[in-house]
Amino acid sequence: MAQGWSTRFIPGPFEVELLLVERIVRPESGGSEVLLQLAMENESLHEARDEFGAELALFLGLLWLILSAAAWTQVILGLRPLGVVRREVEALKRNARARLDATDAEEIEPLARAINELADAREKDLARARRRAADLAHALKTPLAALAAQSRHARLTGAVEAADGLDRAIAAANLAVESELARSRAAAIRAAPAVASVAPLPLIDSIVGVVERAEFGEQLVFEVNVPDALRVPVAAEDLLELAGALIENAARYARRRIQINGSTAADKCELSVEDDGPGIDPEQMTHAIERGGRLDEVAGGHGLGLAIASDLAEATRGHLSLTRSSLGGLKVSVAWSVPAA
Fold first, then answer.
1. What is the pLDDT of residues 197-245, one digit of tens each?
2. Which residue has the higher pLDDT, 59 or 1?
3. Are residues 201 and 323 in the same domain?
4. Contacts from 201-207 at CB under 8 Å and sequence distance 24+?
5. In terms of pTM, does the model score above 0.90?
6. Backbone phi, then psi, for 166, in 5-degree steps?
7. Biggest alpha carbon distance in the chain?
């Protein structure tokens, strides 16, 4: 027969505290009870406990570091597909024909597919809208030509005042039609994929050759200072339309001279067209290229052509600016950023 173990602290020799473990046992039935006692220095137990606590803290710290690194890695790897989506959405903003390619990540594949479907629907809607606008603009050309013939007939019959009013209305309608056609072209340029570059000198020479034969360009002197090696990051047909709008606009208001310059720097290339015409007042230059501005009211001419050129420049990712020309008229500059080599 035996009782349970009990513990207590007792003073030991040399003033050392001891941990005593004891119990009473009866070796034989009916025999005498025997007290068993085991004692151990208590300080050794404290040292063992402190050592175990230190090792446990170190182990838990290492476990925390490992689990934290694993959680961080899991979050980074889990969010990596979203980073890819963000970059592809940025590309989609720059190029309407770009699409998301997230087939490697099954978790976001439905999101990528939905965005691509939305982009497809937007592109189709924009294409339909551009076609309708262009069709409407082209359809208006025939009745406007008929009205112009009626105006000439009225003028021949002596109704000069009525013919003048009709001519002003026809001119305003023609400007609106040309503007809409140019904006449709600008929208198509924005949707087109980016191109490498093109040499502007041959295109400018061809434009000058055409304008020189026009009625408003026969008496003008064209000075072309564009380096042969200059290249701009624009498609040839887009640069042809933009440069054509700038040169034709300058030719309509120049008195005698038009100067076309080209230059390049470390981070940009630039084309500029200057004339010796009446120009535009500095305070009206910003209004001259405002979207939707009444450019026909700008003093000195340079009407809707600058707004069209501004839209085309923006569509080719360029920046159009107006300053006073050294020739006395207007200087229109278009600058494009050049990627670092």
1. 788 899 999 998 888 888 778 888 899 998 988 888 888 878 888 888 8
2. 59
3. yes
4. 201/226, 201/227, 201/228, 201/230, 201/262, 203/236, 203/239, 203/240, 203/243, 204/243, 204/247, 204/260, 206/240, 207/240, 207/243, 207/244, 207/247, 207/248
5. no
6. -65, -40
7. 153
Q: Which two tokens stand for residue 191?
A: 């949707």
- pLDDT tens digit sequence for 197-210: 788 899 999 998 88
| One domain for residues 62 and 149 | no
- CA 330/CA 229 separation, integer angstroms: 26
* Each residue's pLDDT tens digit, 150-184: 888 888 888 888 878 887 887 777 776 766 666 66
249 falls within a domain: yes
Range of the domain at 18: 1-84
Q: Could you tell me if 284 and 330 lie in one domain?
A: yes
Q: Is 248 helix (H, G, I), strand (E, B) or coil?
A: helix
Pairing of strands 17-25, 6-11: antiparallel
Give the CA-trace dihedral at 84, 90, 92, 96, to 10 degrees. Answer: -170
Point out the domain boundary residue: 190, 223, 251: 190
Task: Output the six-digit token pair for 43.
Answer: 């300080």
Mean pLDDT of the chain: 79
Looking at the predicted structure, is the pLDDT value of residue 259 above 90? yes
Residue 261 lies in a domain: yes
**Measuring CA to CA, how many Å separate 259 from each of 256, 322, 333?**
10, 15, 12
